[in-house]
Amino acid sequence: KKKTKQKRKKTKGFTAKQRRELRLFEIEPEQQRYAIFLPLHELWKQYIRDLCHGLKPDAQPHMIQGKLLKADLHGAIVTVTKSKCPSYVGITGIILQEFKHVFKIITKEDKLKVVPKLNNVFSLELDGFISYIYGSKFLLRASERSAKKFKLKGTIDL
């Protein structure tokens, strides 16, 4: 007699509708404080230093830029430098969540701002190295962006 193996059932995750109903990705108002996320920023800085091998002054900027484009931005302090909508210009804060089309940013005033990537230019500053991110070329999820090859092009106007 042959022994039949029992197949293990894969545990299925939640559907998108269930995730929305459970509010899994929403940050509660009492947790929306800038000071809570400063340790996340310190971890992000350490992650970028390890990724870019210490951000030495003799490092080539385009190599660092390429690594920053593929890096995870959760915990980075970003500033909106240019935008088609003037009300977004000057927003500075820590990126809490990154979606395909928007960043959720917590400001120093403990306000959660949702900033679209399209038609915005963001700047990252780390150890004196300032990098600009064109949001319209950045319309990907963080996981998809790490596998994508970016082509170097000149500056792009909004």
Automatic annotation (TrEMBL):
<dbReference type="InterPro" id="IPR016848">
    <property type="entry name" value="RNase_P/MRP_Rpp29-subunit"/>
</dbReference>
<dbReference type="Pfam" id="PF01868">
    <property type="entry name" value="RNase_P-MRP_p29"/>
</dbReference>
<dbReference type="InterPro" id="IPR002730">
    <property type="entry name" value="Rpp29/RNP1"/>
</dbReference>
<dbReference type="InterPro" id="IPR036980">
    <property type="entry name" value="RNase_P/MRP_Rpp29_sf"/>
</dbReference>
<dbReference type="InterPro" id="IPR023534">
    <property type="entry name" value="Rof/RNase_P-like"/>
</dbReference>
<protein>
    <recommendedName>
        <fullName>Ribonuclease P protein subunit p29</fullName>
    </recommendedName>
</protein>
<comment type="function">
    <text>Component of ribonuclease P, a ribonucleoprotein complex that generates mature tRNA molecules by cleaving their 5'-ends.</text>
</comment>
<dbReference type="GO" id="GO:0005730">
    <property type="term" value="C:nucleolus"/>
</dbReference>
<dbReference type="GO" id="GO:0006364">
    <property type="term" value="P:rRNA processing"/>
</dbReference>
<dbReference type="GO" id="GO:0033204">
    <property type="term" value="F:ribonuclease P RNA binding"/>
</dbReference>
<dbReference type="GO" id="GO:0030677">
    <property type="term" value="C:ribonuclease P complex"/>
</dbReference>
<comment type="similarity">
    <text>Belongs to the eukaryotic/archaeal RNase P protein component 1 family.</text>
</comment>
<keyword id="KW-0597">Phosphoprotein</keyword>
<dbReference type="GO" id="GO:0001682">
    <property type="term" value="P:tRNA 5'-leader removal"/>
</dbReference>
<keyword id="KW-0819">tRNA processing</keyword>
<comment type="subunit">
    <text>Component of nuclear RNase P and RNase MRP ribonucleoproteins. RNase P consists of a catalytic RNA moiety and 10 different protein chains; POP1, POP4, POP5, POP7, RPP14, RPP21, RPP25, RPP30, RPP38 and RPP40. Within the RNase P complex, POP1, POP7 and RPP25 form the 'finger' subcomplex, POP5, RPP14, RPP40 and homodimeric RPP30 form the 'palm' subcomplex, and RPP21, POP4 and RPP38 form the 'wrist' subcomplex. All subunits of the RNase P complex interact with the catalytic RNA. Several subunits of RNase P are also part of the RNase MRP complex.</text>
</comment>
<dbReference type="GO" id="GO:0000172">
    <property type="term" value="C:ribonuclease MRP complex"/>
</dbReference>
<keyword id="KW-0539">Nucleus</keyword>
